[in-house]
Amino acid sequence: MLPSTKYVEPVERTLDSKFKFGCHKDISCFNICCRNTDMLLTPYDILRMKTRLGMSSGEFLKQYTYVHIDENSSHPFAVLKMMDDEGGRCPFVTPEGCSIYEDRPANCRYYPVGKGLMMRESEQGPVPEEFFFFIREPNCKGYDEGGEWSIESWRTAQGVDVYDEMNREWAQLQLRRDNPGKPKLDSSKQPLIYMASYDLDRFRKFVFESGFLNLFELDDEEVEKIKVDEVALMKFAFKYLKYILMLEETLKVKEEHLTVEKSE
Length: 264
Ligand code: SF4
Ligand code: SF4
Fold this sequence. Notes:
Blueprint: E1 18-21, E2 39-40, H1 43-53, H2 57-64, E3 65-69, E4 76-80, E5 93-94, E6 97-98, H3 106-110, E7 113-122, E8 125-134, E9 147-150, H4 151-157, H5 160-177, H6 190-198, H7 200-209, H8 212-215, E10 216-217, H9 220-228, H10 230-244, E11 252-253, H11 255-263
Antiparallel strand pairs: 1-9, 2-4, 3-4, 5-6, 7-8, 10-11
C-alpha cells in the first residue's frame, strides 16, 4: 500500500529495527486499511493473484488494475484498482477480511512496514540496497496491540520474504535502468516492458507463438521448463527485460540473423 507520505516516518530502518504491532478481526479499525490505497503490484503479486482467481494475467490486469506511467521512470506500473463505491474499497475485502489473504500482494503483507530501494555507493560502484520505514497512519490501531517484532521477523511471519526473493531482480531492474547517465528509454519499448513484467500469459504466447524461439539461441532445457513452470517463465521474462533494457546481454541473437542483418 502506498500511504500518504505525511504518515511515513522519516527514519530509515533496517531488518533489525523493532516495533510492536498486532492486527486481528476484533480490532476497531479492522479492514479500514483496505481502501483508498494506491497499490503498486509486482510480477509475483499478479502471478499469485491471477492463479488464485483462476484468471489469465490479461483478464486480471483488465479487471483489477490500471496502468501508471511515472515520467521519471522507464517503467509502466500496474496498480490495483479500488472500487468506485463509497469508501473506495479494495475489490478483495469482505466483512471477514481479505478474501485472497493467502495470496495477498507484497505491500499488504509488509504493512505497517514500508520498503524502498535505492542505489548506494560501494567498493564495486553503485549497488541497489533495500531500506525500510514505518507507516503510522492515525486510523491504524495496530501499534497499540500485539507482540514485539523485528522487521525481519515480521517479514517472515507475513510470508513476504518469499515475495521479495521472487521480485528482487525485477525491482532492481528499474533502478539500474533509471540510474543517472543511462540514455532515455525508447518509449516504444514500454508495451514490451509491461507485458514481460505483468502479463505472463501474453508473454508465454509471445515466446512460443511468435518468431522468438527462432530469433534467439536458447537452452532446450530452459525452454521446456518455461512451458510448464510459471515462476520459471516469470524469471525468463526478467531475463528478457534485462535484454531489452540494454542492461545485460542475457539473450543472444542466432548467428544466421546477424548475417542477414549485416548483408542488408
Ligand atoms: S488485497 Fe487483501 S489485504 Fe490487500 S488491500 Fe485488498 S483486501 Fe486488503
Ligand atoms: S490494525 Fe492497521 S493493518 Fe490491521 S486492520 Fe487495522 S488499520 Fe488495518
